[in-house]
Amino acid sequence: MPRTLTLARFKALLLFLSVFLNLYFLLLHAPSALLSRYTSSPTTRRHLVFAIASSSRSWSRREPYLRLWCSPASTRAFAFLDRAPIDSSGDKSVARVVVSGDTSRFPYTFKGGLRSAIRVARMVKEVVDRGEPDVRWFVFGDDDTVFFVENLVRTLSKYDHDRWFYVGSNSESYQQNVKYSFDMAFGGGGFAISHSLATALARVFDSCLMRYGHWYGSDARVFSCVAELGVGLTHEPGFHQVDMRGNLFGMLSAHPLSPLVSLHHVDATDPIFPNMNNTQALEHLFEAVNVDPARILQQIVCYDMSHSLTVSVAWGYAIQVYDGNELLPDLLSMQKTFMPWRRSGSIDASQYMFNMRDYPRDKCKRPTVFFLESIVSSSHGILSNYSRHNVENCSKANAIKNLEQIRVFSQKLKLDSDEMKAQRRQCCEILPSFNDSMTINIRRCRDNELISMNF
Ligand SMILES: *[C@@H]1O[C@H](CO)[C@@H](O)[C@H](O)[C@H]1NC(C)=O
Ligand SMILES: *[C@@H]1O[C@H](CO)[C@@H](O)[C@H](O)[C@H]1NC(C)=O
Ligand SMILES: *[C@@H]1O[C@H](CO)[C@@H](O)[C@H](O)[C@H]1NC(C)=O
Ligand SMILES: *[C@@H]1O[C@H](CO)[C@@H](O)[C@H](O)[C@H]1NC(C)=O
């Protein structure tokens, strides 16, 4: 007995000593990089620096779009202009206005193109050379690009800013991608470059510019130089170049699961809400964005078996109510409500990078649409309110004949970094009885729950 006890004690002592010594040497000699991996704070808005391509002619017209997502107090943004703006808002300016450096020594040979492409491309060097402190990502966009910054932060947090990353998206237009590259981040949709890659790029950029005088745009020049450094595009579907015109409804109501990061060409398309101009419509969208950014445009589908209805919610924007059972995969494709960017282009589906379905010409054959009216948030959750958009006097199924408003309850969507890596669509249910007002509750799906009409 005493013998075994001593042995056990001795073993315990040895174990203790070895754990202690291990910890001691680990903490004493661990390379600082190993430790910093654990101490690195989460990426926030403050770690981003935006460089916005603008010009003295467009600045005052486009500044209201920047105002939607950018504020001097919370966002570091520099607007690069060819010269000082004509009517400057001075100290009240939403971004720091910077006059770009001289680029007359670089070649530009693209016929019918604009030399300003070089100036704009060179933002990637000029913004790094400013030496801003504590930058994890440099983000580039145009003055008609609207960013959804919280979602951008979440998206970029998936990647290690100490490694070389070039994050963005190509065009929705197949032809544009053929012309430039399927692997190029289109500049209007915006793209992000990790600080470490940006630092390397800034050192070599001027020498790259000498080789690409034959390219049309600025984004192709950045893409080429990034490619020469041996880095490829990390594709994130939340960036939107929006090489489309007209009514974006079909695109916005079937957004991919990735959070919405950007929208471009915001004044070249129709206003996204009825009876508003472009600025007002985007301001209206931002009422929802500011309440629950991660959920904006997220598509959630629920079914009412007793009335045979299918309801597709694009949160914060619009709801469509279909008569009958629409299968989920069909609802995930985009309704063809928009036109190609090139006005001469044909309108067939093969020119886009995504699946589409027809939007009936006969307005009465379309689903009934409800647009965001108002939104309120409290400690119990979020109530968004959508009201019916009547275009014609169409006779609708009895169940929705009187339906004028839809109220949607949800909780703020918190996507932590694990959820960002494996996203899952949420579920919803329609409260049983409705007449002129319907209530929908959005919640997480249960483990084995299927998004379908249950029989
Ligand atoms: C949009 O409407 C608002 C409010 O009526 C107005 O102040 C603003 O100038 C309009 N913007 C444009 C671009 O027409
Ligand atoms: C929703 O909007 C409609 C139309 O403006 C309004 O009549 C209704 O009171 C609103 N409901 C809520 C809950 O805010
Ligand atoms: C719908 O019908 C009402 C009443 O018959 C009529 O006043 C209204 O103008 C019609 N609206 C449309 C868009 O046709
Ligand atoms: C449904 O709403 C309509 C219009 O608001 C109203 O006339 C009707 O009485 C309501 N029906 C029921 C059962 O509440």
UniProtKB/TrEMBL annotation:
It comes from the Eukaryota. It holds the Pfam family DUF604. InterPro entries: DUF604. This is Uncharacterized protein. The lineage of its organism: Eukaryota, Viridiplantae, Streptophyta, Embryophyta, Tracheophyta.
